[in-house]
Design a protein that fits this description.
The complex is a heterodimer of chains A (895) and B (285).
Chain A: H1 8-25, E1 40-49, E2 57-66, E3 74-78, H2 89-97, E4 101-105, H3 125-138, E5 144-145, E6 148-149, E7 151-156, H4 158-169, E8 173-179, H5 185-189, H6 208-219, H7 231-241, H8 248-255, E9 270-275, H9 283-296, E10 300-305, H10 318-330, E11 339-343, E12 352-356, E13 367-369, E14 371-372, E15 376-380, H11 400-410, E16 418-423, E17 430-434, E18 437-444, E19 451-463, E20 466-469, E21 475-481, E22 486-491, E23 495-499, E24 504-510, E25 523-529, E26 533-535, E27 540-544, H12 552-584, E28 596-604, E29 610-619, E30 624-629, H13 635-642, E31 650-655, E32 658-659, E33 670-673, H14 685-696, H15 705-712, H16 727-739, E34 745-749, H17 757-772, E35 776-781, H18 784-790, E36 793-798, E37 801-807, H19 808-812, E38 817-822, H20 825-835, E39 839-841, E40 847-851, H21 857-866, E41 871-876, H22 879-888
Parallel strand pairs in A: 3-4, 3-7, 7-8, 8-9, 9-10, 10-11, 30-35, 30-36, 33-34, 34-35
Antiparallel strand pairs in A: 1-2, 2-4, 5-6, 11-12, 12-27, 13-26, 14-16, 15-25, 16-24, 17-23, 18-22, 18-25, 19-20, 19-21, 19-24, 28-29, 28-31, 31-32, 36-37, 38-40, 38-41, 39-40
Chain B: H1 19-27, H2 30-53, H3 66-69, H4 74-86, H5 88-99, H6 101-107, H7 111-115, H8 121-155, H9 170-186, H10 189-201, H11 205-223, H12 253-279
Helix pairs in contact in B: 1-8, 2-8, 4-8, 4-9, 5-8, 5-10, 5-11, 6-10, 8-9, 10-11, 10-12
Classes of the chains: A alpha+beta (895), B mainly alpha (285).
């Protein structure tokens, strides 16, 4: 049943019930029953007769895994060819954790076990397995039912055939799991022709490639040419691999090592797992096993998976095995007849899992397609060389890497050896499941007479540009062709494929294949399909696709991440709105508060420099306040805190009564120019101002562009890009930008930098007029004269502190002093002293400083002139400069 | 001398720094314009390069490489251009756009004036990131559209030839190219978020962009080390080829979803850090 078909409400109910069950059974933190560790492993040696009836015994090396909780059902694990018990350790431990007693052993001739390899012979390996079951029967940890040990035999490939044969010959076996294995070793290694005309004897080929690979695994680690093989098998192999024909005795020997010989005695429930990527033991071998088991009355389930000897072995079937043991060893549930088959990935589809109600063999009802192509002559060169390559043992052609390697290997295949016949594009999708077949007409060609023809048939699927060989390999055809030719129905290797509309199927017939013995006789044959290609299928009741779809966890993660993002945005927006409420409705009553109040402001930079230290002052409406201080006095830092650009370490700034935080809405009523202009250089001055105003989100008529542009006084340059402006022009534009909207408080940091004297004068007038209109101006400067001439009030800062504050007159001192520039200072001082006027030398060499003490200044001038001293100039007041220099304690005239 | 009218209460502030204003501000910069022009012109450059390189090989049958198939059809050419661009160039463009957001304003001294408008800091960052995202997406869409146009004019009105697979219809191909563009854009989420963080932290736009590029290279190097195993899914570029899923057959949605999830997580985390940092940063210079 496909799980998506289950109604959602049922799923929810089930999920809720499951959650409840978990909560009741397993309190948080308590270890689950299944994962309880413990258990033990112990090495055991089992002796078994060297051959039936022999007194000589061989020792077999085994490991016995006992779970924590006993008695428990037992699993006998058999390994694959060329392996030993160590290859089973991971699987054994996994089964042990699931609560089974596991016996994993090295078959005779492998690992530390003694004896010779008889390829799962009924006279060697199979009695060995029964000896192992004897051990399990004696072990107290093994659960017994009706005084009979509960035992499963499980194995893949070499171990699979052993499992089948042990199960068939030992009634104590309760269930068998056999993966990627054979039914008849003679048919698997020396396959009969895939097609033989009626009345002819069946000829055999030899799967030399795979057989050699197996033989190599059997002689590994041995100095003998026959390795640990029995002498009989060694001579059989030698005969076949050198091109000989299998004799009746050879076939009989191979059948002593075949489940086909004993399966009629099986009664235990059996799971047959067969790989689709398998050119050694194809789906036909499992099919033969299934048919024999069904005939014997044993419950059997068949499963085809996307693996096998050419595709990763039995990897991925662990879950199937565990479920089988749970249902048919630990419990005794009836065996479901359902047939599950994996459909491998095609050029246009992901791998899928399909389910059929029952296993229907290899020739289920399907479709027929016509193959086109004229009769073609194919040539077998002398010696059958070069041989076409369609694969190499163990090369997985289902992945892109394997496909690339296969294409590379096949690149040199001689074209004369092959004939290809292609179908029209398929009109409808189809599932190929089983052994396709096609009648083929074979005739002798160009000088070849009647004789034995050898051909290899293969199916490929063409999807657009891509051509993929169907898994399962090639079918060897070997038959006697009379002079007039013959027709034969060729059965192709059983396989599974997802055929999409538009796909084309190609049949290729070759005279050689590198993995088969083939024929060394030179020959040429004319071949063509003599009818439609029959594509078998199976009735599918369900499909499950997991590949190519995102995992549920990932989708949940995406939703969670989106929710988190939405939540963060909502929090940010909420905070922003709380802020913005003031800006939306400016409250006029706060106008009663002074435009700017600073209290106890402190800022220490990360470098440790104390830039502003306890600065406090207030600015009232209508004032033009000068912030005076030497370079580095902390003026700009103070103004940055006023505008919320940096945070004070201590103290507070209030604009119109509102405390300043970054982006505080009260800044709407403040215009500023701080530490140099900043514009988009490629835009014109006017465009810059327009964009700036647009950024405020306020109506255009509130900007007062005309007044502000008049202040900037840039004339036609306002339409040119700012990048071409002089420093003074940028400066004026920046001041204009600060004045956009005619804010109630204008803060200008060093506004006269780069301005020429007429512009400075003009700015002075602008600022005064601005203050006169009821607004407030704060100007910082290190130019004393500037502040003195522009401001009504002054705050003097030095080294981060306020050193004086008040009106300019208050800070500069009263007007009771005049500075008189004279041509002779000594004479002037003397004359004044004589007249009883208090005077002293000024810092400037040619000037004296006179305390008027109520006298009119012209009287002092007259006095000096009367004393013969030339008066060059006379200026009133001690001046801010002097006050400033006194305040900051400088000795040299300030800049 | 100018006389100023008496002060009046400022009117209602509708919305500080509207999206279109920031869009106009960013589009006025040559850096942004050049990026957009580059993306739009790139397909033409690729076409010219193929022209100079000679005619397509007579038989590209069975090729698993899109490069060999680039001239097979208009759709294939567009897919080829996307594969060329989707990896490093797109990351670089994202780094340039997002690395400039705050650091660029700071280097032009315009940041302080925007903040004293006042534009709330999170609003400033949000609008800027949004505008940059729109520009980036527009650039990628322009790239795809021009590539498709150049492709069909040069190689005919046919769909994508999937390497080692079927030839798709033109309509199907257009949909797939669109989806590819979207997934490629989603694959840049991490770069955009890292660029936003670095532009807030670093002083200069080039440092921020360079940081993103360096992180991308580092991530790609680490991704090449198999010993890291499953840890590599945490690397921001681990799913950086997910956008190619739609140029293949069958379409594997698993890496696409993983890429989107990875991008979202990076974007949320780095974006939140960037916003937190910017909200409390001292703006100077």
């Amino acid at each position: 049943m496909h799980h998506r078909a289950v109604p959602r409400s049922r799923w929810i109910r089930r999920a809720a019930a499951a959650a409840l069950a978990v909560a009741l059974v397993a309190p948080p933190g308590a270890p689950a029953q299944a994962s309880t560790g413990g258990g033990s492993v112990r090495q055991v040696t089992v002796t078994s007769p060297e051959s039936p009836g022999s007194a000589q015994r061989i020792r077999l090396d085994a490991d016995l895994y006992t779970p924590a909780s006993t008695p428990a059902p037992a699993v006998l694990l058999a390994h694959g060819f060329g392996q030993d018990k160590t290859a089973l350790a991971a699987q054994a431990r996994s089964l042990q954790r699931q609560g089974y007693v596991v016996l994993a052993y090295s078959a005779r001739g492998f690992g530390r076990s003694q004896g010779s390899i008889g390829l799962d012979s009924l006279d060697g390996e199979v009695p060995d397995a029964r000896s192992m079951i004897d051990l399990l029967a004696r072990t107290p940890a093994v659960e017994r039912r009706d005084d009979d040990p509960v035992v499963a035999v499980v194995g893949g490939s070499y171990g699979g055939a052993l499992a089948l044969m042990a199960g068939a010959t030992d009634p104590r076996v309760d269930t068998v799991v056999a993966a990627i294995t054979w039914n008849d070793l003679a048919d698997a290694l020396a396959p009969p022709s895939a097609g033989t005309p009626a009345g002819q004897p069946v000829l055999r080929d030899f799967k030399a490639g795979w057989a050699a690979r197996l033989f190599g695994a059997g002689i590994a680690g041995s100095a003998e040419p026959c390795g640990r093989f029995t002498a009989d098998f060694c001579s059989l192999y030698r005969r076949l691999v050198t091109g000989g024909t299998a004799t009746a005795a050879d076939l009989a020997l191979l059948r002593r090592s075949s489940p086909s010989t004993v399966l009629s005695r099986m009664t235990a429930p059996t799971l047959l797992l067969q790989g689709e990527q398998d050119r050694l033991f194809g789906l036909d071998q499992a099919d033969a096993n299934a048919r024999q088991l069904a005939a014997a009355g044993a419950p059997v389930q068949v499963r085809w998976f996307d693996g096998g000897h050419d595709g990763g072995g039995t990897a991925g079937t662990e879950g199937v095995l565990e479920a089988w043991l749970r249902d048919h060893l630990a419990a005794d549930r009836p065996v479901s007849s359902r047939f599950v088959l994996d459909v491998p990935a095609s050029a246009t589809a992901f791998p899928e899992q399909r389910t059929a109600a029952r296993y229907g063999g290899l020739t289920g009802r399907g479709t027929e397609v016509a193959l086109s192509g004229a009769a073609t002559a194919v040539v077998n060169p002398p010696g059958g060389l070069p041989a076409s390559i369609t694969g190499v043992p163990g090369l997985d052609a289902s992945g892109s890497l394997g496909r690339t390697a296969s294409r590379f290997l096949a690149a040199g295949n001689p074209a004369e050896e092959a004939a290809t016949f292609v179908s029209a594009p398929l009109p409808a999708p189809a599932l190929l499941a089983g052994a396709a077949s096609v009648p083929v007409r074979i005739e002798p060609a160009s000088g070849t007479g009647a004789g034995t023809a050898v051909l290899y048939a293969q199916l490929t699927v063409r999807t657009g540009d891509a051509e993929r060989a169907l898994p399962g390999g090639v079918a060897p055809v070997r038959l006697t062709v009379p002079a007039g030719g013959t027709a034969v129905r060729v059965a192709l290797p059983a396989t599974v494929w997802n055929l999409a509309p538009g796909d084309r199927i190609a049949l290729t017939l070759r005279t050689s294949d590198s993995q088969f013995t083939g024929s060394t006789t030179p020959a040429a044959w004319r071949v063509r399909p003599a009818g439609d290609l029959v594509l078998p299928s199976t009735a599918v009741v369900g499909a499950d696709r997991t590949a190519g779809l995102p995992a549920t966890g990932v989708l949940v993660g995406i939703v969670a991440a989106l929710l988190a993002a939405a939540l963060l945005l909502a929090v940010a927006a909420l905070r922003g709105r709380r802020h913005g409420r003031f800006a939306a409705v400016p409250e006029r009553e706060t106008d009663e508060a002074p435009p700017l109040v600073i209290e106890g402001l402190v800022k220490r930079f990360r470098s440790g420099f104390l830039a502003v230290d306890d600065v406090g002052f207030a600015v009232e409406r209508g004032q033009v306040l000068g912030l005076l201080g030497e370079n580095g006095a902390g003026k700009t830092t103070t103004l940055r805190m006023v505008t919320g650009l940096i945070r004070p370490d201590a103290g507070e700034v209030r604009l119109f009564g509102e405390p300043v935080v970054p982006g505080t809405p009260a800044l709407t009523r403040l215009g500023c120019f701080i530490e140099g202009p900043g514009f988009l250089p490629q835009l014109s001055g006017r465009r810059n101002l327009e964009l700036y105003w647009a950024a405020t989100g306020r109506p255009r008529h509130e900007a007062h562009f005309d007044e502000v542009l008049a202040v900037a006084d840039l004339g036609g340059a306002i339409r040119r890009p700012v990048r071409g402006y002089s420093q003074g022009m940028r400066q004026r534009l920046a001041i204009a930008q600060a004045m956009l909207g005619l804010p109630d408080l204008l803060v200008l940091d060093e506004p006269t930098n780069g301005l020429d004297p007429p512009q400075i004068t003009a700015l002075r007038g602008v600022l005064r007029a601005y203050a006169d209109s009821g607004r407030t101006v704060v100007v910082s400067s290190h130019l004393l004269a500037e502040v003195e001439q522009t401001c009504s009030h002054v705050v003097v800062m030095s080294h981060g502190r306020v050193v004086a504050a008040g009106t300019v007159a208050e800070v500069a001192g009263d007007g009771g002093e005049v500075v008189v520039h004279v041509d002779d200072r000594a004479a002037a001082l003397a004359a004044l002293r004589v007249a009883g006027v208090e005077a002293r030398a000024d810092r400037e060499e040619d000037a004296v400083r006179v305390d008027l003490a109520g006298r009119p200044p012209q009287q002092v001038a007259a006095l000096l002139v009367g004393a013969g001293v030339g008066v060059v100039g006379l200026s009133r007041g001690r001046g801010l400069e002097d006050a400033f220099l006194d305040l900051i304690g400088a000795t040299e005239p300030g800049a | 001398m100018t006389a100023f009218p008496p002060p009046v209460a400022p009117g209602r502030v509708r919305r500080v720094l509207p999206f279109r204003v920031e869009l106009a501000r960013q589009l006025s910069q040559w850096r942004v314009r050049i990026v957009l022009i580059l993306l739009a012109v790139l397909p033409v450059v690729v076409r010219v390069a193929l022209l100079v390189g000679g005619p397509p090989p007579s038989s590209s049958s069975g090729s698993t490489d899109l490069t060999a198939l680039a001239q097979a059809s208009g759709g294939t050419f567009a897919a080829f251009v996307l594969v060329l661009t989707g990896g490093f160039l797109a990351t670089l463009v994202a780094a340039l756009l997002f690395g400039d957001l705050i650091a660029g304003e700071a280097s032009r001294s315009t940041l302080k004036y925007l903040l004293t408008v006042p534009v709330p800091r999170l609003r400033l960052l949000g609008v800027k990131a949004g505008v940059a995202a729109v520009i980036l997406l527009a650039g990628l869409v322009a790239l795809t559209a021009v590539a498709l146009l150049v492709g069909v004019l040069s190689y005919g009105f046919e769909g994508i030839q999937v390497p080692g697979g079927p030839r798709l219809g033109l309509g199907d191909s257009v949909v797939r190219l669109g989806l590819t563009t979207l997934v490629a854009a989603a694959g840049l989420l991490w770069a955009a978020a890292l660029g936003t963080l670095l532009t807030v932290v670093a002083g200069s736009p080039l440092a921020a962009a360079g940081g993103v590029v360096l992180a991308s290279i580092l991530s790609r190097i680490l991704d090449q080390i198999p010993a890291l195993g499953d840890l590599r899914v945490a690397l921001p570029t681990h799913f950086s080829t997910a956008y190619r899923a739609f140029l293949e057959q069958p379409v594997d949605l698993a890496p696409v979803a993983s890429s989107v999830l990875s991008g979202l997580i990076w974007a949320v985390v780095l974006g939140a850090v960037a916003a937190w940092w910017f909200a409390r940063k001292d703006v100077s210079g």
